[in-house]
Amino acid sequence: MSRKWERMVSKNSKKINKDRSKKGIAPISTDPDRPEVFKGRSIMLALFFILISIFLLATLTKTDGDTMYWYTTSAYLVVGVFIYFVRRPYLKVSKTSLSKRGLARELVLTPSHIKEIVYSPGQVIIDLNGKSPRWVYTKTLNRFDVAAMAGRLKKFAEQNQISFVDKTV
């Protein structure tokens, strides 16, 4: 296909996908190698900030409660809600790499850095080569769809010759 034709197809598919999303219909796929993103929830960190906010409210008993105290208490509550609803952890699985959200940037793994992928009931563990910490995704702690994630990671492991261990069988 010529580049002009590819640009036309891309432009038209974006327009159609935008219209379909407004109608609530699933978008058409123009890129079969598009990365698949699995999103979870950061329950522990959000709960930590909300508990700090509650603690600050509980210790307000005999103080005057100046405005800065109220700003601090409400800021902890807002940060906890923000982390729970907006800053969600994810695993992005593309054809040749895995990536996740780090503290300040996106961390990307190529197949050469992955030793094995282990799927056990309720969790997926990605073991890395060297001294790097392993990536653990759980259903109970981070609310990930572990079964769907394991299916996509199995396909990723087959494409990139990585060992995939299924402990559910």
TrEMBL record:
GO terms for biological process, alphabetical: methylation
Top-level taxonomic group: Bacteria
Biased composition regions of type Basic residues, renumbered to the chain: 12-23
Transmembrane segments: 43-62, 68-86
Chain residue ranges for the region called Disordered: 1-28
Gene Ontology molecular-function annotations: methyltransferase activity
Keywords, comma-separated and alphabetical: Membrane, Methyltransferase, Transferase, Transmembrane, Transmembrane helix
Protein name: Methyltransferase
